[in-house]
Structure formats: structure tokens, C-alpha cells
């Protein structure tokens, strides 16, 4: 029996799904009051509104309005990304297209395959599971509702992702929101504080003005000290940013003379949103990269939601593009072993179904934790691979809760909870067209840091989540179960998600071209400037494809040598 006034029967279902190519790094559990035999106490609606108006609180309805796509096509980073994309389309057509075997159909693997196909080669993309997307995978439950691995936000400062949408002709699938960052106020339950970026101001003035106008989270002395502390990063550029990898956010702030309250008020929430960990663990490089993009690009921090589930609305268009150019995408093709030839290079990818897949080149686009388990013993002491030991995936939990009514104390936007156990959340019945419901809310919440919770029961996780939601929705949700009623929930656990961006990780991130001839890596953990993100995954795929295209003559020569050697046997 829980302490919330509702109990969860043992019939609640749990299943394990697979992230990458090994078993059980992601578990998906669900509970439902109507369909899974759970008993959930009825909640009654409270009409005792607080004296202060709640944000978005209306007796009629919450209106969702999407905003036009921002003018990002002429920014330096967008044009740079567009040029990189064009090099694949415009590269000389190969006399003999390479067959490139890629393990993992997350964004990194899909990106690698897409751009190899654009360059005239034939990718063979193998996905272990029956669903596309990797860390952006999603599943449909028996009621037809979708639940996702994570709450995914597409920023204006994601130039390679934005180019990818344009190249696929699906720009209209991004639902852009107002240019704001919205934080809950723990000291004032149910209230929010906003950072609004003025459309008429260029960067970085729009960001500076947004910070200066907000007097609820930071005092003027704190703003001034933070601004002074940030000056070296703004002046020093990317080289300065990368040099701060050895410091945690907390250490850097104290070194720069920034008050701890700035970290507590702003950067706990930001750290958890970026990497699911707190500022005492997160490398300051991660924060500075985000701040640089947000402050240097007018629309860099503007956010968009995908208009539906990621496998169908984003991944499938990539697959269709790959297949239209002669590539292949195979689901339920789990990599069991990287088989080596006598010279230590890859002979084939052996799948769990016993089949061997051979190609001219091979790519691992699996998460770093899975890659380390798949590495052949002969490779493990090579410095390039040994450095991967420092890179470890961070646990994260994604929670979905369907309520029996429309919650009003919310926005059509991403919200920073500033909770000790929750990161960001959104009412997906407002923010996403496919999930839209005018009568009932579905909250999707990122539960982080999750290290201490990943092995806890779903009942414990839902109970803790409801206690936090009672603070965010004090007039509508109660921890004792006396208000809004849960209709059902899904809990998705990923024990090893994106790599944990702790200090001194940067030197351990590998280039996409490995020291093993014909073997390459793709993934957000590989070397690229956007770290662990969707943008980082897509860019890593482009870099991986670029390395293979550049190595075309070497790969062909190697194949000819092998053929000649086989003929002499």
C-alpha cells in the first residue's frame, strides 16, 4: 500500500525492452487503473483557487498556439551544417558503392546511413529491437497512446538536426513554442518565473535582456556577479569552453566568484535538463556550450516539440530516404559479436539469430556502454578503445501520467520543475498534435537524477512523482490522492542513457575513424561539439559518413587485397 491513498495491484505489467544490442538497459513498465487491475482512489476537483492567479489558469480552457519557424537558415552554424550535408550529395558517384554495415538505428546510426546513401553508397542498418530511434524510441500501448524513452526538445541551436528536417521535407512536423524559458518556483507552489527573449533584439542582447528582466530568481548583485564570471567564456570562445572540461559546474562558479544561489536557482535545473545530473557532477564545458549557443544565436534557445511519436514522425522519413537510394534497414537484428579476420580487422557482424552480415566497412552506432561490451578482446588494450572506460551512461527515468481532467496550471511549453527528483516536464496533451486532448492531460516528466531510483518499483516512482506534482499543481493535484485522478501511467527506465558528462571526459571521446581499418564509430559520445544530445548524434553520424567517404580508396584497395588473398588459397 502506498502513502498516497491509492494502491497498485500486482497485475501491473512490466516488460523489458532493449537499447542498442544487448539485453536490459531499458525497462518499460506501465500501470493503469482501468486496464491493468490497479485500484486508484477517485480524485475530486478542488475549486479553492489560490489568491494569486496560477500561470495559465483559466476557467474556460488552455489555448495552445504554435509559433512560426524561426529565421535560422542564414545563421553561420546552419549554413555550415548545410554545406556539410551538400558534400555528400555532391560527392563523385563511386564506381562501386560500398556496402557499409551499421549496428544501431538510433539517430546516430540513421544519420550515418542517410548521408552514406546520399553519397551513393549502400548502408545496411541493423537495429536490435523492433522499434526505431534508440534513445528517442517510443511505443504504443493497448489504448493507442504513445509513451517515449525521453522528453525530446528540438532547439534552434541544433543546425544539423534542423537541416535534416529540411532535407527530408518535414519542417512542418516541428511545433515551435514561444521564445521563453519557464521555471517553477519551489518557494511559491504553483507559480512560475519566466525568461522571455524579445523578438526585436539580436543576440546576445535578447538573452541578456531576458536575464535582466527576471527579478524573481536572481537579485541584481547576483546577476552582475554571474555576468562578470561569464565574460571569459564569451570572449574566449570554443577553446576556452573546451578548457573548462576539468571543472564541475559548481567548481567553476565558485572559481569565478559566482554566488552559490545562482547555481541553486538556475543551474541545478539546467544541469539536470542537459545531462540528468546535478551541478556538482556535471562538467562546466556542457553548460558553457549550451550558453554559448543560446547567447550567440538569436533563436538558439527557442524550442520546438515534434508533432507526434519520434519513430513514425522522424525516424521513418529517414528510413524511407535511405531505402529510396538503395540502402537497407533491418529490425530485430541484434549484434552478438564482432567477428575478426586473421589480421585483426572486422570479418563480419554475427547476429543473435546466427546470421553473419558482411560488408566493405563496419560501423558501431550503439551506445557507448553496449559498444564496450561488444569489443573483441584483441581490441580492448588499444588506447583508442581503452579510453572509453571513462565514458559511462547516466541512468534516467521517463514518466507518463494520464489524468482524468485537463490540468490548468501549465503552459504549452517545456517547464523546468526545479524539483529535487524531477527535471523538466510538459503537458503533452497541449504541446504535441498527435497527443492533443482537449479534456484530459498527459504529463510527461523526466525523473532525474535517477541513480538511486532506477531499481525502485514503479509504485515508489509514481508516489514520489505525485508528491512533487502536488507542489506544481497545488489546486489540482494532491499527494493524498484527493484531487485529480490517475487514469494510467507508464514508466520507462533507461539504466544507461547518454554518457555522463563529468569532468575530464573530453579527452576520452573517440574520433569516428577508429585505428582498426574499416571500422568506425557513430554516437553522441564520439568527438563532436554538441556533446550528448540529438544534435550531437546527428552530427556524429555525418562525421562518420564523411570519414568513410574519405576512406573510399583505402577501403576498396583493402577489399581487393582480401579478394586476391582468397584467390591464392
Automatic annotation (TrEMBL):
Domain of life (superkingdom): Eukaryota
Enzyme class: oxidoreductase
Main location: plastid
Reaction equation(s) it catalyzes: 2 a plastoquinone + 15-cis-phytoene = 9,9',15-tri-cis-zeta-carotene + 2 a plastoquinol
Residues annotated as domain Amine oxidase: 107-548
Needed cofactors: FAD
GO CC annotations on file: chloroplast thylakoid; chromoplast; membrane
Pfam families referenced in this protein's UniProt entry, alphabetically: Amino_oxidase
E.C. number(s) listed in UniProt: 1.3.5.5
Localization: Plastid, Chloroplast; Plastid, Chromoplast; Membrane
A Gene Ontology biological process term: carotenoid biosynthetic process
Keywords, comma-separated and alphabetical: Carotenoid biosynthesis, Chloroplast, Chromoplast, Membrane, Oxidoreductase, Plastid
Presence of the UniProt keyword Transmembrane in the record: no
Keyword Membrane set for record: yes
GO MF, one annotated term: phytoene dehydrogenase activity
Mode of membrane association: Peripheral membrane protein
Pathway: Carotenoid biosynthesis; lycopene biosynthesis
Subunit structure: Homotetramer.
Similarity annotation: Belongs to the carotenoid/retinoid oxidoreductase family.
Entry protein name: Phytoene dehydrogenase
Gene designation per UniProt: CqPDS1B
Amino acid at each position: 500500500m502506498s502513502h498516497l491513498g491509492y494502491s497498485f495491484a500486482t497485475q501491473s505489467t512490466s516488460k523489458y525492452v532493449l537499447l542498442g544490442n544487448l539485453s536490459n538497459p531499458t525497462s518499460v513498465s506501465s500501470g493503469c487503473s482501468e486496464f491493468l487491475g490497479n485500484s486508484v482512489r477517485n480524485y475530486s476537483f478542488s475549486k479553492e483557487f489560490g489568491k494569486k492567479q496560477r500561470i495559465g489558469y483559466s476557467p474556460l480552457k488552455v489555448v495552445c498556439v504554435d509559433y512560426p519557424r524561426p529565421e535560422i537558415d542564414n545563421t553561420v552554424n546552419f549554413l555550415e551544417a548545410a554545406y556539410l550535408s551538400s558534400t555528400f550529395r555532391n560527392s563523385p558517384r563511386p564506381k562501386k558503392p560500398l556496402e557499409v554495415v551499421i549496428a544501431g538505428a538510433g539517430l546516430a546510426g540513421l544519420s550515418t546511413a542517410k548521408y552514406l546513401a546520399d553519397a551513393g553508397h549502400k548502408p545496411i542498418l541493423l537495429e536490435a529491437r523492433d522499434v526505431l530511434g534508440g534513445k528517442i524510441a517510443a511505443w504504443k500501448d493497448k489504448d493507442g497512446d504513445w509513451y517515449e524513452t525521453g522528453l525530446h526538445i528540438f532547439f534552434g541551436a541544433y543546425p544539423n538536426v534542423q537541416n535534416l528536417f529540411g532535407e527530408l521535407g518535414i519542417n512542418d512536423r516541428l511545433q515551435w513554442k514561444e521564445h521563453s524559458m519557464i521555471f517553477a518556483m519551489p518557494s511559491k507552489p504553483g507559480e512560475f518565473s519566466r525568461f522571455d527573449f524579445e523578438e526585436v533584439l539580436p543576440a546576445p542582447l535578447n538573452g541578456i535582456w531576458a536575464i535582466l528582466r527576471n527579478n524573481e530568481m536572481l537579485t541584481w548583485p547576483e546577476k552582475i556577479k554571474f555576468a562578470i564570471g561569464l565574460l571569459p567564456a564569451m570572449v574566449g570562445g570554443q577553446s576556452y569552453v573546451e578548457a573548462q572540461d576539468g571543472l564541475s559546474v559548481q567548481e567553476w562558479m565558485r572559481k569565478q566568484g559566482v554566488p552559490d544561489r545562482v547555481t541553486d536557482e538556475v543551474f541545478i535545473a539546467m544541469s539536470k535538463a542537459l545531462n540528468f545530473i546535478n551541478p556538482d557532477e556535471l562538467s562546466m564545458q556542457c553548460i558553457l556550450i549550451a550558453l554559448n549557443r543560446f547567447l550567440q544565436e538569436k533563436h538558439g534557445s527557442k524550442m520546438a516539440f515534434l508533432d507526434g511519436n519520434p519513430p513514425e514522425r522522424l525516424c521513418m522519413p529517414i528510413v524511407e530516404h535511405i531505402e529510396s537510394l538503395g540502402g537497407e534497414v533491418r529490425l530485430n537484428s541484434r549484434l552478438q559479436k564482432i567477428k575478426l579476420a586473421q589480421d585483426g580487422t572486422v570479418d563480419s557482424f554475427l547476429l543473435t539469430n546466427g546470421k553473419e552480415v558482411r560488408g566493405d566497412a563496419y560501423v558501431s552506432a550503439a551506445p557507448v556502454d553496449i559498444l564496450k561490451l561488444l569489443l573483441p578482446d584483441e581490441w580492448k588494450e588499444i588506447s583508442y578503445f581503452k579510453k572509453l572506460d571513462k565514458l559511462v551512461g547516466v541512468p534516467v527515468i521517463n514518466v507518463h501520467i494520464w489524468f482524468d481532467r485537463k490540468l490548468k496550471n501549465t503552459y504549452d511549453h517545456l517547464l523546468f520543475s526545479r524539483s529535487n527528483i524531477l527535471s523538466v516536464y510538459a503537458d503533452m496533451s497541449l504541446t504535441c498534435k498527435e497527443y492533443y486532448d482537449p479534456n484530459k492531460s498527459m504529463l510527461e516528466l523526466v525523473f532525474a537524477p535517477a541513480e538511486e531510483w532506477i531499481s525502485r518499483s514503479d509504485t515508489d516512482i509514481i508516489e514520489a512523482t505525485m508528491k512533487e506534482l502536488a507542489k506544481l499543481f497545488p489546486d489540482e493535484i494532491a499527494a493524498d490522492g484527493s484531487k485529480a485522478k490517475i487514469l494510467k501511467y507508464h514508466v520507462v527506465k533507461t539504466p544507461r542513457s547518454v554518457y555522463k558528462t563529468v569532468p575530464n571526459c573530453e579527452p576520452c571521446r573517440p574520433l569516428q575513424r577508429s585505428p582498426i581499418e574499416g571500422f568506425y564509430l557513430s554516437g553522441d559520445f564520439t568527438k563532436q561539439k554538441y556533446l550528448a544530445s540529438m544534435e550531437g548524434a546527428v552530427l556524429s553520424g555525418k562525421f562518420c559518413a564523411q570519414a568513410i567517404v574519405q576512406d573510399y580508396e583505402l577501403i576498396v584497395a583493402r577489399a581487393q587485397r582480401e579478394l586476391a588473398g582468397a584467390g591464392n588459397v
